[in-house]
Amino acid sequence: MEINRYIDHTVLKPTTTLEDIKNLCLECVEYNFAAACVPPLYVKLAKQFLGATESKVATVIGFPFGYSAIEAKVAETVLAIVDGADELDVVINISAVKNNDWEFLEKEIANLMLVIRERKKVIKVIIESGILTDDEIVKCCQLYAKYGVDFVKTSTGYAEKGASVHAVQLMRTNLPADIQIKASGGIRTLAFAQELIDAGATRIGASASVSIVKEAKA
């Protein structure tokens, strides 16, 4: 297994600098990671650094708490695509989940999918599984399956709990085979990454990507 091709090499800390992005992209090229996941501010720069390599440019929308207005998320998405983003990791409105407001969440994803599908980009919806109940996770899977998203993603890395094998297994059981799962949040070792892949994840979001790959080679 080529673990590097499962990984979105990620830097999303609020203090991210130009130098951080340059280093991230150089590592993406060196290790042939699936994508470089960067803050929206740096999408254009990452696109330049990665050029014609296999690594995609991913960015985040509504990050990290998900409670920005639908119109704001749509605007963020449009701007990110204009700047060159290939993949959009969108935080759903977690407050709406907790309010059991599935009508709002349906409106949100419907508006986002219009923009993303028109421009033939990839969407990964971040449900923040670590702070949801199993029932909420299942309902999210049902809703986002209905809209044919590309990935359902576990976490932002900013909640008190990140990816878990249990959440990935639950998601895999409740999603159609053609919808992929991205596990992220707290993945720092090859062993944990492998557990998540075995559970059904097809993409791993990590900032410890280089050490994971070196561990695999060792």
UniProtKB/TrEMBL annotation:
Compartment list: Cytoplasm
Residues in coiled coil: none
UniProt keywords, alphabetically: Cytoplasm, Lyase, Schiff base
Pathway it works in: Carbohydrate degradation; 2-deoxy-D-ribose 1-phosphate degradation; D-glyceraldehyde 3-phosphate and acetaldehyde from 2-deoxy-alpha-D-ribose 1-phosphate: step 2/2
InterPro entries the UniProt entry points to: Aldolase_TIM (IPR013785), DeoC (IPR011343), DeoC/FbaB/LacD_aldolase (IPR002915), DeoC_typeI (IPR028581)
Name of protein: Deoxyribose-phosphate aldolase
PANTHER family (UniProt xref): DEOXYRIBOSE-PHOSPHATE ALDOLASE
Role noted for this protein: Catalyzes a reversible aldol reaction between acetaldehyde and D-glyceraldehyde 3-phosphate to generate 2-deoxy-D-ribose 5-phosphate.
Classification via Pfam families: DeoC (PF01791)
SMART domains from the UniProt entry: DeoC
E.C. no: 4.1.2.4
HAMAP family per the UniProt record, alphabetical: DeoC_type1
An MF annotation (GO) of this entry: deoxyribose-phosphate aldolase activity
Catalyzed reactions per annotation: 2-deoxy-D-ribose 5-phosphate = D-glyceraldehyde 3-phosphate + acetaldehyde
Active site location: D89 (proton donor/acceptor), K153 (schiff-base intermediate with acetaldehyde), K182 (proton donor/acceptor)
Major localization class: cytoplasm
Highest rank taxon of the organism: Bacteria
Family to which this protein belongs: Belongs to the DeoC/FbaB aldolase family. DeoC type 1 subfamily.
A GO-annotated cellular component: cytoplasm
Upper classification of the organism: Bacteria, Pseudomonadati, Bacteroidota, Chitinophagia, Chitinophagales
Gene Ontology BP annotations: 2-deoxyribose 1-phosphate catabolic process; carbohydrate catabolic process; deoxyribonucleotide catabolic process
